[in-house]
């Protein structure tokens, strides 16, 4: 049950990051989950472990990390689209 809860919270974190940035994450719900997990890792690596814990994620660093990840992915995807034109 813990793994399922982590998938749900990871998806929500990725979805919230996409909403904050105003950009869609490629891959739909799977992309949201991946962005949430990688964002949680990135956020805890940079900001440490603080804030409320939800589903084994420190929510605030995870959300900030996911926002940074969405920003970086959107820059890369934007440059790839411009390169094709």
UniProtKB/TrEMBL annotation:
Pfam families reported for this sequence: Transgly_assoc
Membrane topology: Multi-pass membrane protein
Organism: Paenibacillus faecis
Record bears the keyword Metal-binding: no
Entry similarity comment: Belongs to the UPF0410 family.
Name of the featured protein: GlsB/YeaQ/YmgE family stress response membrane protein
Domain of life where this protein originates: Bacteria
InterPro entries per UniProt: Transgly_assoc (IPR007341)
TM region positions: 6-22, 29-51, 57-77
UniProt-annotated location(s): Cell membrane
Cellular component GO terms held in the UniProt record: plasma membrane
Alphabetically ordered keywords of this record: Cell membrane, Membrane, Transmembrane, Transmembrane helix
Keyword Protein transport: no
